[in-house]
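step 4 of 6: structure.
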Amino acid sequence: MSFKILKKSKKSKARIGILKTKHGVVKTPIFLPIATKAAIKNLTSEELKDLGAEIILSNTYHLFLRPGEKIIKEIGGLHQFMNWSGPILTDSGGFQVFSLAKIRKVKENGVEFISEIDGQKFFLTPKKAIQIQLDLGSDIIMSFDECVGYPTPKKETEMAVKRTTKWAKIGKDYFEKKIGKRKDRPLIFGIIQGGIYKDLRLKSLKEITALNFDGYAIGGLAVGEPVKEMYKILNYLVPLLPENKPRYLMGIGKPEQIIKAIKIGIDMFDCVIPTREARHGRLYKFKFKNLEILNQNIKFYEEINIKNAKYQKEFQPIDKNCDCYTCKNYSLAYLRHLFMSNEILGLRLATIHNLKFYLDLIKIIRDAIRVA
Amino acid sequence: MSFKILKKSKKSKARIGILKTKHGVVKTPIFLPIATKAAIKNLTSEELKDLGAEIILSNTYHLFLRPGEKIIKEIGGLHQFMNWSGPILTDSGGFQVFSLAKIRKVKENGVEFISEIDGQKFFLTPKKAIQIQLDLGSDIIMSFDECVGYPTPKKETEMAVKRTTKWAKIGKDYFEKKIGKRKDRPLIFGIIQGGIYKDLRLKSLKEITALNFDGYAIGGLAVGEPVKEMYKILNYLVPLLPENKPRYLMGIGKPEQIIKAIKIGIDMFDCVIPTREARHGRLYKFKFKNLEILNQNIKFYEEINIKNAKYQKEFQPIDKNCDCYTCKNYSLAYLRHLFMSNEILGLRLATIHNLKFYLDLIKIIRDAIRVA
């Protein structure tokens, strides 16, 4: 078994586990910083390691387009390419079916995209998505799915669920054939779709879990639907997921959303929020940093707008209790100056801090579950 | 004396020296990376230190505009502000008289600029330029000068020389009055102007050196004139500079230009080339790295265009003999990928390498002078 639950909370459905991959073991709950194009925006892999990141996410679609998975394979795989020795989860390209809706056509056997780079058409199939991820040397391969946005009519969502199951089966079969009895086996996760329709979500869950993946992701959330809708779905869906497999909520979320989802039983998260917010000069700061954080009723952090004039002469770090590189070396005043002067160093220093906030957050949550 | 010559070459006018500043001693010849707005583009001060930078350059004009020298003073000075503990030389704003010609008016007592930030007019005077640099806590203060471009008619150049002398005197007097017998005395350098006119250059040299500065800069070169013209000027000007004071050639230059200027007797350099070229994906690589470098007839480096398709699968670093962070951790293929994908991490990794090239170059030259 690649996943083992070490502790379950008595107060909620939260759990602590370990997930074994071919590049090492990670603890869950876990947050995955996003290196879409084989780079966390502004950061080196060494910086990411220093921050305490254990596993990162990269993207099949984008690396297929550039530099091409064959080049990465030839060089020795994605880990070599980007000098990251920890585990890598690769998204399958299914999210791009949603996010690049304007330049793609969904067909029965896959999705036709028009390349953003040279305008060429190419066809991504469930097999192709797995082959690319195998070539990249991914540790956790995601099944190719059709992610629909919000709102999407039921009929259309139903078709997407059907295709997602069909593609999951094709991809899983191809994966098993290719992997055979390889010792150095990557993990493969299935993705549950179904939009906001309970019967479709349940159908998708039933069909996908029947395929016996190493873990299960819930996709197609945080695509525009009201947040309440998301929690409603998680509340009925997560308890039906196999207990002994890791559960991955794709693309979520804000700090309080992560906490809420962990209490519903989610183990894995990725999200652009910390890095994207950082690039806009919005910084996270803990108001307190203890186990009370699991208590939903307390706002445990604040958001700082670094461009605010009040930081002009503030020679304190963002958070004097934070031991990230930024807080150890630079002041709010300096960060503000960098942002006001459009010095891109500011983006980096902010990104470092926000990622540290998220990685610290997940560690505190783990500690809190341990005693809850 | 703040400057001491340790060795003179027998084969050329090159010399090795040490320059004492209130933030430590630097060896000359020396190259100053440029942190115009209190940041080397893309790099932290710690990275700069790791690269072996000994002294950096920042800018009076830009820091006056943003964040304002009073804020930096209140915070504890520029060193504190940007977390750099080594010496800092600050340019006076005189170069902006040239580079921002469209938004300034030169008057008898100073220069009126229109702020790029808010369109407000402000007046930079020789006293003001010194006061700002004192507030910043600069280690080497530059006199406020009027830098003219190429071509500039003789009459106009003559006026600029006159004003440069007048301003140098006002600034120097103000500096001495402010500094008094302070132990922690910054150095102050005069700047020689005169365009391409020999008589004006000689006049400027005579008048500026009469003011007994701690060092002398040659300004107004590399502003569009033919390179030959620059060497001609250096050849007659440098031998007339006081032997026992450091000589600073402002804004120069390409690797071979630095070598040539050192052989004419220049001690200090700053230039945007390594950082700017890096941002355009042009990387420097030594063809050989030994003392033969002083021999002008050998092309000792090559320029790499990282976007070239031939680096697509090149899993070697830029230079396997380079021990910069970039070369130790990343390949040409990865760097190319970052540039092709517009990942700004690429700019940083390239900047690190190019600065290391320049800093290594200057060290090799020092070694070469030691035995020449």
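step 5 of 6: annotate
 - The mean pLDDT of chain A is 96.
 - The interface with chain B takes residues 37-46, 62, 66-67, 71, 74-76, 80-83, 312-313, 315, 325, 329-331, 333-334, 336-338, 340-341, 343-345, 347-349 of chain A (CB under 8 Å).
step 6 of 6: archive
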